[in-house]
Amino acid sequence: MASTPASASVFEYAPAPESRSVVDIAPSYGLFIDGEFTEAADGKVFKTVSPSTEEVLSEIAQAGEADVDRAAKAARRAFEKWSALPGSERAKYLFRIARIIQERSRELAVLETLDNGKPIKETRDTDLPLVAAHFFYYAGWADKLDHAGFGANPRPLGVAGQVIPWNFPLLMLAWKIAPALATGNTVVLKPAETTPLSALFFADICRQAGLPRGVVNILPGYGDSGAALVAHPDVNKVAFTGSTAVGKEIARTVAGTRKKVTLELGGKGANIVFDDAPIDQAVEGIVTGIFFNQGQVCCAGSRLLVQESIQDELLDSLKRRLSTLRLGDPLDKNTDIGAINSAEQLARITSLVEQGSAEGAERWSPECELPSSGYWFAPTLFTNVTQAHTIARDEIFGPVLSVLTFRTPDEAVAKANNTQYGLSAGIWTEKGSRILAVASKLRAGVIWSNTFNKFDPTSPFGGYKESGFGREGGRHGLEAYLDV
Amino acid sequence: MSEKSDKTEQQRLSVFKTYKLYVGGKFPRSESGRVYDVTDSKGKWLANAPLSSRKDARDAVVAARKAFGGWSGATAYNRGQVLYRVAEMLEGRREQFVREVADAEGLSKAKATVLVDATIDRWVWYAGWTDKIAQVVGGGNPVAGPFFNLSSPEPTGVVTVLAPQESSFLGLVSVLAPVIATGNTAVVIASEKSPLPALSLGEVLATSDVPGGVVNVLSGRTAEIATPLAAHQDVNAIDLAGADDVLAKELEIAAADNLKRVLRPQPVGEVDWSTTPGLDRMTAFLETKTVWHPTGALGASGSSY
């Protein structure tokens, strides 16, 4: 929208691109198994593209079943020594990794923005600081597990098979790998097929840190590689972040085994605005809730529940704010809204939005010029939405907000809980007792009151109901990787 | 004199008990009208127990869901008081349970007494946990920003419990008490061959201030009752303690359909109900809710107070 007349008449922003030269992407990458980069056994490769330009960034080896087997066995071999290390030694490896991430954070932020399409403002100020913080946090746990509340000398599980999504590639890697290593497990991790690069750079960081061979293995690939990993007999622990449909498939796959599972799945978070809320702050929170990372966030506040009496005032204010969002080059430091991660995801968003219109909801977007190449979707608002509408029930995973109204707090709670999901929710009100009462009634794992989309390594994250089970982050996050 | 009274004892015809289900605070028969023979360890007939149907299972879920709001919303102190009251009632019925457990498990009176005492003590142990578990597994998180951040455990909802098949009373209480102590409500499937202690426990619960529907006890074929419950969309979790490996796998697959929390059976040989439990049977059916709020610290965050 930087180029629309409306915003141009107020402020003209000069381009402020972050330099690409800090990152050197090789033309091809292998799988990272047992401390070495290697080709796939069947020689398969796939291309990863920049979603904002469709430029091919690199060609990546694609893991097949044989590679999964090789990686799982490498992790199994490495487990004995790694788990026998004193916790204080494991801690130092993790501290090293955290420091190297901090040192290379500009490079990694640019890389992530290129491969994922999200604004540099987010990778630089949110993703990368949280990645380093996560490794720092769990590094400190490695030699303090006796005091974590799981009894004396809690044991690791073995090999952790981890499958992560494309929306926060390096951050999700950190959420998975940091607690797994701190507790003495070894890891085989499969990054998403559209965002494999930061995980491969992380492999290099593991080498720089001197991490023993086989402790971390990275297997880029598609869903079939992930399925093979989950099913592999050498895998003792499965950690997955992604869609609810795949999460259910994983739960079926591990049935009857002794594999421990944590699933962090979809959401349809309600952001509830009461009539006494500070409107300007609420508007900022609504924008953060649904347009952060182009709405490709499992805990997004994708359903706005606004008290009927302030609907007009709030929506006017929200629309004014949306008109100032700047969509475009993700590497530009002024960009608010970047590219959608893939053509496939763009198609899914487009189809759900068309369904929203077809079912009778009223669609609105600010004037917005989309770049001619790449995958883009304008910030979108639906009003006149009922609970029966598909856009109020299905996770869209895009910059699309459905607005519903309520009259009483009880109605707000009932509508917020009327979903198969239970990951996040937001509450906006100046009344403290109302925050606490509503928070206690919401069936969701993370409640942001008078704020939204805040994350921290010390804060447990995870869902109720079909948003999955287990928690990541904090002391709670250790349990998933310990035999307790 | 003593001879005469002995004779009277012998001549007196005892009153049998009709064992019934315990659902929604009431004692219905199976809607199917079916019963099955329950025998002691030597094959002697003890009673006709209700052979529950799928419909009974669904009715029990409705009762458990209805009770969830009140029970999970009660204060932890109140839940502790109610559960302690259960132990008091159990103590009063000690002789009856010793007889039922001895019959069910083929034990001497002395051995059955040890089990029943352990069971009552187990109930007391869990009654004391209701207002402590949140402090042990929850707490404040020191986030790197101007936010108050608190994690608290909450009950997951309606839990289906497959009671252990062999330990008809101590095993039963060891799996049931942790589920309800934290505010969940339960649908319990009693040991298939030894359901009588479980059905009698229903009578204890009914007279212990436990709200109707918090615990629902079904007897019958474990697989027949558990299968619809594992697939039930309004059940949040399932404890497979009483399932063999084959059934446990089937039920876990069915449970994936709405991502129930699943507690798998302990491997054969690792089951010892007499040891003091840890927290795991409670935490298995708890969710962690984390609530954030700005603290109003001034600074670059832009928030203020």
UniProtKB/TrEMBL annotation, chain A:
<dbReference type="GO" id="GO:0004029">
    <property type="term" value="F:aldehyde dehydrogenase (NAD+) activity"/>
</dbReference>
<feature type="domain" description="Aldehyde dehydrogenase">
    <location>
        <begin position="38"/>
        <end position="483"/>
    </location>
</feature>
<keyword id="KW-0560">Oxidoreductase</keyword>
<protein>
    <submittedName>
        <fullName>Aldehyde dehydrogenase (NAD+)</fullName>
        <ecNumber>1.2.1.3</ecNumber>
    </submittedName>
</protein>
<dbReference type="InterPro" id="IPR016163">
    <property type="entry name" value="Ald_DH_C"/>
</dbReference>
<dbReference type="InterPro" id="IPR016161">
    <property type="entry name" value="Ald_DH/histidinol_DH"/>
</dbReference>
<dbReference type="InterPro" id="IPR016162">
    <property type="entry name" value="Ald_DH_N"/>
</dbReference>
<dbReference type="InterPro" id="IPR015590">
    <property type="entry name" value="Aldehyde_DH_dom"/>
</dbReference>
<dbReference type="Pfam" id="PF00171">
    <property type="entry name" value="Aldedh"/>
</dbReference>
<dbReference type="InterPro" id="IPR016160">
    <property type="entry name" value="Ald_DH_CS_CYS"/>
</dbReference>
Automatic annotation (TrEMBL), chain B:
<dbReference type="InterPro" id="IPR016162">
    <property type="entry name" value="Ald_DH_N"/>
</dbReference>
<dbReference type="InterPro" id="IPR015590">
    <property type="entry name" value="Aldehyde_DH_dom"/>
</dbReference>
<feature type="domain" description="Aldehyde dehydrogenase">
    <location>
        <begin position="32"/>
        <end position="262"/>
    </location>
</feature>
<keyword id="KW-0560">Oxidoreductase</keyword>
<dbReference type="InterPro" id="IPR016161">
    <property type="entry name" value="Ald_DH/histidinol_DH"/>
</dbReference>
<dbReference type="Pfam" id="PF00171">
    <property type="entry name" value="Aldedh"/>
</dbReference>
<protein>
    <submittedName>
        <fullName>Acyl-CoA reductase-like NAD-dependent aldehyde dehydrogenase</fullName>
    </submittedName>
</protein>
